[in-house]
UniProtKB/TrEMBL annotation:
GO biological-process terms attached to the record: pyridoxal phosphate biosynthetic process; pyridoxine biosynthetic process
Keyword NAD carried by entry: yes
Species in which this protein is naturally found: Vreelandella sulfidaeris
Pfam families recorded: PdxA
Gene: pdxA
Annotated protein name in UniProt: 4-hydroxythreonine-4-phosphate dehydrogenase
EC number: 1.1.1.262
Catalytic activities: 4-(phosphooxy)-L-threonine + NAD(+) = 3-amino-2-oxopropyl phosphate + CO2 + NADH
Positions that bind a divalent metal cation: H187, H232, H287
Length: 354
């Protein structure tokens, strides 16, 4: 992937929220800075004192410097930070719902910076949904949906991509790690998924996926392979009628619009080289249907991208890992991929708009 310093729009920073303070997010950012792997012109958002304490506890050689827009230092083992103060003290591995508003405040600052033109893109470290809910936000379902509402858009698409897939316009999967997977539904209980699969939703999500593969990945005419919902893609209605009644008519309508759509295909055979050859992305019907395969292929070296937003947002491919927090054992690989990808996507958006 290109060095961020060589890309257009490099004057604006990529902002990185440090996520749940009891999780591994803070130390992942510190690890990248301590190893000199934090891409140029990256700025963390979080509590500076907490970051200093975490760095000292882990023995990391990092200088945490508070700064504001346009005034942040670069280079060396410096971690520039736009400060947000913790609501309550944070202990690694110990969740505290009292810090729910702190976590959401870091997100709000990142969104505001992107919308005001103070940041090129935002990257999010993992948060803990339970903490946010218990901290007074019962409707919270995740980053993706929160960002949809914060940006005032009707729909967004969650897509994860492995590092290898980020280098090529069209992945050529051969049992390796080059894969992009988007989702029709995101954080829903499994019993609610079938009711959420509608003609309107399948067509809207497919159009958003196609548009952002063109706008953010530079793919002129994306080819998308679509999973069926049921085993064997319904087997002609004998294992469920969602394919016959909803998914096939939706895909036929999209093909009539000129989109290059394959499927619906049985999910248990779609993720094989024969079906994925020349495919730019897979559209899965629900969370674990697609992401289990992607994380098997490239866990720790993949990034989450929210498509359909008026800004660039990427994230890591993992959770808060409370069992690893504060131990210095977490792998910052996914965060490194997410930051580099955010810079690349911001540059691609800039080139399209010029």
């Amino acid at each position: 992937m290109e060095d961020s310093a060589s890309l257009p729009g490099n004057a604006l920073p990529v902002v990185v929220t440090t996520g749940e303070p009891a999780g591994i997010g803070p130390e992942l950012t510190l690890m990248l800075a301590s190893r000199g792997h934090l891409p140029a012109n990256s700025v963390a958002i979080g509590d500076p004192d907490m970051l200093r304490q975490r760095a000292a506890a882990l023995g990391l050689n990092v200088t945490v410097v508070e700064c504001s827009t346009g005034e942040c230092p670069r280079g060396g083992n410096v971690l520039p930070v736009w400060p947000v103060t913790l609501t309550e003290p944070a202990t690694p591995g110990v969740l505290n719902p009292g810090n729910a508003d702190y976590v959401l405040s870091t997100l709000a600052l990142a969104v505001d910076a992107c919308q005001r033109g103070h940041a090129a893109a935002m990257v999010t470290a993992p948060l803990h949904k339970g903490v946010i809910i218990e901290g007074g936000h019962p409707g919270f379902t995740g980053h993706t949906e929160w960002l949809r509402d914060a940006c005032g858009v009707d729909d967004v698409v969650m897509m994860l991509a492995t590092d290898a897939a980020l280098h090529a316009a069209s992945p050529s999967w051969q049992g390796g790690s080059d894969l992009r997977v988007a989702l029709v539904t995101t954080h829903l209980p499994l019993r609610n998924v079938a009711d959420a699969i509608t003609f309107d939703r399948v067509t809207r999500i497919s159009r958003l996926l196609t548009a952002d593969l063109q706008r953010q990945f530079g793919i002129a005419k994306p080819r998308i392979a679509v999973c069926g919902l049921n085993p064997h893609a319904g087997e002609d209605g004998h294992l469920g009628r969602e394919e016959l009644d909803i998914i096939i008519p939706a895909l036929d309508a999209l093909r009539a619009e000129g989109m290059d759509i394959l499927g619906p295909l049985p999910a248990d055979t779609l993720f094989t080289p024969r079906h994925l050859a020349g495919v730019d992305a897979v559209l899965a019907m629900y969370h674990d249907q697609g992401l289990a395969v992607l994380k098997y292929a490239g866990f720790g070296q993949a990034a989450n991208i929210t498509l359909g937003l008026p800004l660039v947002r990427t994230s890591v491919d993992h959770g808060t890992a409370l069992d690893l927090a504060g131990k210095g054992l977490a792998d910052p690989g996914s965060l490194k991929v997410a930051i580099a990808l955010a810079r690349r996507l911001a540059a691609q958006r800039l080139s399209v708009s010029e």
